[in-house]
Structures are given as C-alpha cells and as structure tokens.
Amino acid sequence: RTIGDRIGEAKASGNLGNTLKILGQFDEAVVCCQRHLDISQEQGDKVGEARALYNIGNVYHAKGKHLSWNMAQDPDYLPQEVKETLQKASEYYERNLSLVKELGDRAAQGRAYGNLGNTQYLLGNFSEAIAFHKERLAIAKEFGDKAAERRAYSNLGNAHIFLGRFDISAEYYKKTLQVSRQLKDQAVEAQACYSLGNTYTLLQDYERAIEYHLKHLVIAQELGDR
C-alpha cells in the first residue's frame, strides 16, 4: 500500500483470505478475498479476478462444511444457513468457471468442475454433481492427472449411490481401486475396497462384499490403522 502497488496489495489480501479460511475465520476471510477481487477487477487483472472468485468459493465451501459438521442434523434435512452458504460457494465457482473458460485455462476449469461437483453433492443435487464430476474426469484424463482422475471416480461412485444406481457405483469404485493401485496409495485403495464392500452389500452380492471387506481389513492391518 505504501508504494502504491495495487496488484501486490490484491495478492497479499488473497493470501490473507486463504490463511484466515484455514484458521476457520470465514467472515474475515471473505472480506480479504473480496478485496483481492475488487482490486483485480479495478486493475483489469483477469487472472487475479479468476483466482479471487475461486478463493471466495473455497471460503464458502469450507464454511458450509464446517457448519454442517457442527450441526447435529437429520441427513435428509440441510439447515437453511448451510444451504445458503453452499449455494454461494457454487455461485462463485460458476463465475470462476466462466472466466477461466474465457481465459482458456483448462487446468483451472478442471478444479472448478470438481468443486462444483462437491458443492452440488453436499446440497443433495446428485444429478448435477454427476454432470460436473464427469467434466472433471475428462479434464483429469486430458492432463494425465491420475490423482484427480481417482477423486472423480470416487465422487461419481458416491453420487450414484444416492440415486440408487448401485451397479454404476460399483463400476466407478472399481476404477477408483485400479487407479489407486497405479498410484500405489494403499490408504485410498483400502477406502475403495470398503466402498465396494458396502456397494455389493446393497446389491445383495454378499460373497463379493466379503471379498472386498477382507481386502480392506488386510490393508488396514498392514498400515497399522486401528
């Protein structure tokens, strides 16, 4: 501010916002991220503007998750405050998405789609979540980003469970399992086996359910994860 570096001030405000988000000070975080957004717009800095929109989305997303964890709630009922907060997150991700499309930034589009999928999932809009996660998956494959591909498969599996499409969920969880083995990530592999065990229980294929739960157990024992 002293030297009149507006772009520097914008970036510093954004960093403060992200730090406050991690500290759980969501309202203060929004104020700092909003300053990042205002200055970026004033300076015609499209990249900074996109980043600020994404960061504000992240603050509302984190706040929504935090609120829902802290409220003892019926899983079929989303408190109004949580709903409004997640809808705000979604709106900022949408604005970020249209701007990064304009900028032709495919990697940033991937991140926006993933987060839109996650917020729609938390809002209980499972069909919308699936559409966004499919977009995320396509971009992850484009970049050869195996970790993002694995997360997309897992999220697609979860969303199909809530639509009662257990057969489709099982296929996505199998892909999750496959990629987690390629990544040599045993904790994620165990999680995929657990999801498959539960999905085959829902499909009433108990032999297969037992097979996957045993695989989960073996990895949990190997990792010493009580």
Automatic annotation (TrEMBL):
Q: Where are the TPR repeats?
A: 150-183
Q: Where in the cell is it found?
A: Cell membrane; Cytoplasm
The molecular function GO annotations come to: G-protein alpha-subunit binding; GDP-dissociation inhibitor activity
Please give a single GO biological process term from the UniProt record: establishment of mitotic spindle orientation
Principal location class: membrane
Enumerate the UniProt keywords alphabetically. Cell membrane, Cytoplasm, Membrane, Phosphoprotein, Repeat, TPR repeat
Listed Pfam families: TPR_12 (PF13424)
State the Gene3D superfamilies in the record.
Answer: Tetratricopeptide repeat domain
* SUPFAM superfamilies in the cross-refs: TPR-like
Gene Ontology CC terms, in alphabetical order: cell cortex; plasma membrane
Q: Which domain of life is it from?
A: Eukaryota
Protein family according to the UniProt entry: Belongs to the GPSM family.
Q: Please report the name of this protein according to its UniProt entry.
A: GPSM1 protein
